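Re: How this chain folds, sequence and tokenised backbone to follow
Notation: Tokens come from a learned vocabulary of local backbone shapes, not from coordinates.
Start of record: The labelled sequence and token lines come straight after this line.
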Amino acid sequence: MSENGRNDIQWGICLDVEACGSKLFQTVVQYAADTSNDKVTILSPSVDCQVNKTDIIELQESPEYVYGEDVSPYNHPDITGTVVHIGWHFKRNCCFYKIKIGKKIKSRRYFENELISGEGAGKTGIDETGEYFAETI
């Protein structure tokens, strides 16, 4: 534990309906526990939002991909997006991801086996004229 009462950074599922303007319900969050007041400080995706420790379900493993990471759908390695949301699928008991390509967030939910790390991905996006482009690296 550090000097300020915070433990190591952990990952969990936020179950607080009102957390950070209700945007984090059932969202996978990165947080630091504060042992001095039974609160946790959410570090990602929001900054410095606090919720009760009882409103977080701790994950045993970190998500495969993290917020801001470049990824590609496995069936379209030429398209690169950025992870902008990590949710929890309670039936499958696993993370799912929403990615942003250019200025648009894809409506599709991607699971870990449907994405590849951006290391082997190409560059894609929408240019200033609104046209889609793709480059293979």
In short: The chain has two domains: 6-58, 70-135.
